[in-house]
Fold each of these.
Amino acid sequence: MISNDIQGIGMTSQRTRDRLVDRLREKGIKNERVLEVIRTTPRHIFVDEAMAHRAYEDTALPIGHGQTISQPYIVARMTEILLENGIPDVVLEVGTGSGYQSAILSRLVPKVYTVERISALLQKAREAHRKLGLMNVFSKHSDGSWGWAPNAPYPAIMVTAAPKTVPPGLLEQLAVGGRMVIPVGYTGGVQELKLYTRTAEGIEEETLELVSFVPLLDGAIR
Ligand code: SAH
C-alpha cells in the first residue's frame, strides 16, 4: 500500500513534509530539535489511507470514533513547552489518539507513557508505533484522568484532550520541578492552553494561548 509506505510519495513525500516544517517555523515554533523530529516522522502513518494526502497540512484530521489527530502546530508547540527547561527522563501523555504525539515525544525523550480510553484507537496507535520501530512508548487502555500511578511522579505530563477543570489526580502525579501542559475548559470547543509547574512551595499556573481539543471524557470503552 503506497500511502501507508513510511517513505511516502507525492502528497506524503519528504518535500511535502519539509514545507510543513517551514510553515511551523513561520508560525513561531523555535525548537530546532522538535522541528527536525516533525520533519522526519511520517504523519501519514497515523491517519487512514483516505486522509493520507492531507497528512502534511497543518490541520487536525479525523481518526474515527469522533476523535482527531492534533494539528502539527499544536503538537510542536506543546512539545516545545514541555521541553523548555531541558529534556525530562519520561513524559506521561493522556489521550494517545492516533499515537502521533507520542511518536514525536518518543524521539525526543527516553521514555513515553501514554493512556487512551478508546481501545480501538489504542490498537491502531500501537500498530503505527510498531511500524516505525518505536520501542520506548508504553501504553495503557484506561481513563487517563487518574494518570498512571505506578510510574508517578512525572517530570512532564501532556494532556491532549480538554477537561472542564484540571483533574486533581494528574496534578498529584507531577514531580517537584515538573511541568504539565493541558487545555482547560471546553465551552464552545475552545480552551486555554495552561502550563502547571510544581515547585517546592506548590503549584504555579500560566495561561499560554487559545486552543481547540476534543473533550477529556470519563471511563474507558472498547
Ligand atoms: N495525542 C493525540 C490526540 C488525540 S485526540 C494524537 O496525537 O493523535 C484526544 C484523545 O484523547 C482521543 O483519542 C480520546 O479518546 C482521548 N481521551 C479523551 N478522554 C480521555 C481520558 N479520560 N483518558 C484517556 N484518553 C482520553
Amino acid sequence: MIVRSLLLGMSESAWLREHATRWPFVRRAVSRFMPGEMLADMLAAARVLRDAGIEAVFTKLGENVASAAEAEAVARHYVEAVATVRAAGLGAEPSVKLTQLGLDIDRDRAWRHLQTVAEAAHAAGLYLWIDMEQSRYVDVTLDLAERARAEFRDVGVCLQAYLYRTEQDLDRMLRAGVGVRLVKGAYQEPASLAFPKKADVDRSFEALGGRMLEQRAARVVFGTHDAALIARLCDRARALGAPPRSYEFHFLYGIQRAEQARLVAAGEGVRVLVAYGDYWFPWYMRRLAERPANVWFVLRSLVGG
Ligand code: FDA
C-alpha cells in the first residue's frame, strides 16, 4: 500500500518525468510494457498480436495537455492513426484520454477534438474508447461519452470498479447504449470516493461485471489481468448463457501473455491495449504501482546494464 502510494505520487512529479525518462535503465525497463514510441511500433505489435488471434486497442500516451496546439495535434494524430490502421488491414481500436484532447483548457475544446476523432473512427469502421482518468474527471467524461454516443454509434467508456459511484454510472451508461470497459482503477483516490482495500475493489468488479453480462451492455469489456476474476466472470457468463465473444477481455501489452493465449485457445474474445509515444512516465509509474514486484524488474535492469 505504501509502495503503491509512493509510486503513484512519483507518477505526478514533473521533475522525475523530465529526468528519469532519460535514464537508460528506465528506458530499458519500460520496453516491457511498450513496443516503442512511434505509431509504426504500435502497428508492428498489432500485426504480431493479430497473428496470435488478438486484435489491439491503441493509445498515444499523454495526459493533462496544457497547450491548445498540442491538444489539436493529438486529435490530428488520432485521425491519421485510424486511417493508417485501416489501410494496414488491422482492426485496432483507438482509446483516448480527454485531458490529452484539451479538457484542462476547456471542455468545448475537448468535445470538438473528441468529435473529430469519433468521426474519423466511425468513417474507418472502428470502435472508439474513452479512458477514465482521476475522479474529478468522471462527470465530464460520462457526459461527453453520452454525447459522442448520440452522434456515433460505436463509442465506449472506461469505468473504474474502485469508485463507489460506479454502480450508478454503469446503469447510466447501459441506458445510453455506451459500451463499457470495466477496470479496477489506476489512480490514487481518497477513501471517501474509492474502496481503499483491494479485496473490496475485486468484489465490486465482479458484481459490476455480472451486471454488465446480465444487462448485455452495448459492449461488455473486462480490462483486467486478474486470472481468478477472469475465471469467475467466465463462469458467470456461462451461467447466464452469454456466449464467448459477446463479452471480451482486454489486457495491457506485455502483461499476462500466457493468460491471453489461454483465453484465445478457449475461444474467448481478447484484445490487447498497445500504448506508444514519448510521454510515458506517469503511465509507466502507474504500471509499477499495480505490481510492486515490477520495481525489482527495473532495479534488475539497472544492475544488468
Ligand atoms: P490486479 O492489480 O489485481 O492484478 C492481477 C494480477 O495481474 C497480478 O497479480 C499480476 O499477476 C498481474 N498484473 C497486474 N498488473 C500488472 C502489471 N502492471 N505488471 C505485471 N503484472 C501485472 N485504469 C484507469 O483508471 N483508467 C483506464 O482508462 C484504464 N484502462 C485500462 C485498459 C485496459 C485494457 C486494462 C487492462 C487496464 C486499464 N486500466 C485503466 C488499469 C486498471 O485500472 C488497473 O490498474 C490494472 O489493470 C491492474 O489491475 P488488474 O485488474 O490487472 O488487477
Amino acid sequence: MGFCDDQLERVRPIWDRILSHRFLIGTRDGTVSDEVFATWMRQDYLFVEAAIPFIAILIPKAPPAHVEPLTQTIAALHKELELFRERAGVAGVDLTGIEPSFTNHAYIQFLLASGYRESYPGAYTIFYAAEKAYYDSWTVVKHGLDTGSIWYPFVENWAGQAFADYVAFLQSNLDEMAGRVGSAELKRMAELFELTAKYELAFWEMASEGEGWPGMS
Ligand code: HMH
C-alpha cells in the first residue's frame, strides 16, 4: 500500500466523522437549511480564494514536471470561484464583504504557513488530503441529492470523473514522493495529513454551527 492509502487507513476515525457529518447528510437529503448552506458557500469561497496563493507558493519548490499541473490547478480554482459566484447568484447568496470564520481563518493560515515553511512533499500532503476529502465528501452528497437541485453543480465539480482522475493523479504523485523521503520527513507528512483531516472535519462543523468567532456573539 502507498503512503496515501496508509494515511487514509490511519486517520479512518476522523475520515468517518467527515463523511458522516450532518452537513453532508443534510445536503444529500435536501434537509440542510438555506442559511447553513449559504454559510458553507461564503466560507468555502474564501477558502478557494486562499488556495490560489497556496498553490502558487508551491511552484518555486516543485520539480519541473509538477509546474504545469500546478499552473492548471490555479486556473481550475479560478473556475471554481466562478462556479461559486454563479450559484450564489442563482440562490440569492451574497458573497460580498465576507470575512473568514475562526475555523476558516485558522485553516487558511495553516495552508499558507505550510506552503512557506514545509517541504514540497509536506505541503503537497496537505494539498492531496484536502482535495481527497472534498472528493469523498461530495461523493456522499452525490448518492442522494436530486440532480435537479440548485446545489448539484457542486457535486458535478467535486464528485465527477474529472475530479476523480485529478485526485488519483495527486495520489500517485504523493505516493511517489513519499517513497523517496527520509523517515523524519515521512513522519511530518503523516502529521500534516492528520491535521488536514481535522481541519476538513472542523470546516463542516463550522458550516453547521455558524461563522462567529469565540466570545464575539
Ligand atoms: C475546505 N477543502 C475545503 N474546501 C475546498 N474547496 C476543498 C477542500 C477542495 O478544493
